[in-house]
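Wed. Picked up where I left off yesterday with Amino acid permease/ SLC12A domain-containing protein. The coffee machine is broken again, so keeping this brief.
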Amino acid sequence: MAHHAISNGTMRTFGGFPKSAEFLGDYPDFIGALIIILLGIVLTRGPKLSVHLNSVVTCLNLLVLVLATGIMLIYPQHTSNYSFAPAEHGGFFPYGFGGMVAGAGTCFYAFIGFDAITVSSEEAIDPKKSMPIATAVSVSVVTVLFILASLGVVLFIPWWTVDRVAAFTAALEARGIVWATYITGFGSVLGLSASLFTSMYALPRITYSMASDGLLPKWIGYVMPSTQI
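Structure written out below (tokens, as returned):
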């Protein structure tokens, strides 16, 4: 959306990491570090605040996704020379069965994060009832939205021009709907933050369970009486 303004500015100001350090990124991500610190502070305030924040961020994510998908489905390409699956790009099944399997494997990452439902079962009022419902509903919603969003993108622009880094933002920019690119860009940041927050939310609970089972030292599973963390 910003044409790599943040990364380019960071590298001009602070430089990048050496290429030999493959375990590091290309440049120091100060914004990412700041987001991690802020989310960590929220987690230390207790589970109630964490749940409220996660709910707000999730609702905003869904709103952005529904808005972008709706725009793409309402305004598909209507050009006389446009073909959904042209022969010069492989036709309807361009990458064959192997490509389909590889794509399905990539789609698996859209379903990462549902483990947070199970690790928070001890904090649920009726986990035997709420856990299956929460898992089934969330997986169903994500599946439907994923299918509609993917369909919207390939109807909105030719599939072989889809940007693999920022599909929605690049597609909207290519069609000249600039105002929506800022919304999807903001939604992308929210989505990454929500995914990070989910992992950070689950980690202490997994660590606590492992300490309770004796797989880790007992002191790691200590819970502060004041905050229950």
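Quick read: Helices lie at 5-14, 30-44, 47-74, 96-107, 115-119, 127-156, 167-174, 178-212.
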